[in-house]
Amino acid sequence: MWSATLAFPSFVASSTSLPSYSKPRLPRIQASLSNYPLASKIMVRNLPFSTSEDFLQKEFSAFGEIAEVKLVKDESMKRSKGYAFIQYMSQDDAFLAIETMDRRMYNGRMIYIDIAKPGKRDFQQQPRTSGPPEKLQVPEEPASNEVADCWY
């Protein structure tokens, strides 16, 4: 579904007029305090309630090396809530899994896969709060009997 490509137009010119460039590189999005690229975590939605983490590990490891599988469970019922997060070691593996598995039928249900949105846990810091803006202290000029020379 999602794919990102970066292409540069080729110019015909002599090698002395233009510097030589290597192949274009895609930008890597890196979380500030994480060891994995930010876009390498995917969210799988609409899973059957009987899904297990081991099954997800087995199915999605075909697309690349998986760092973590987190199946979100209901605390009181101890069963799946129907969605999971899968952390890949690289962005390319995550994009391959999205392109291959998105909108596929699984146990009679169509599953949806997207890149997971980062939360505050991904950066391991509390959000900063701020109060009202500080008042600027403007120095007062001594009163003088001069009239300002300005036209409005």
TrEMBL record:
Family matches, as SUPFAM superfamilies: RNA-binding domain, RBD (SSF54928)
Domain RRM: from-to ranges: 40-118
Domain of life: Eukaryota
Subcellular location: Nucleus
Alphabetical UniProt keywords: Nucleus, RNA-binding
Pfam families cross-referenced by the UniProt entry: RRM_1 (PF00076)
Gene3D superfamilies: 3.30.70.330
Record region (Disordered): 120-152
PANTHER family given in the database record: GLYCINE-RICH RNA-BINDING PROTEIN 4, MITOCHONDRIAL ISOFORM X1, U1 SMALL NUCLEAR RIBONUCLEOPROTEIN 70 KD
Protein name listed in UniProt: RRM domain-containing protein
Source organism of the structure: Brassica cretica (Mustard)
Lineage: Eukaryota, Viridiplantae, Streptophyta, Embryophyta, Tracheophyta
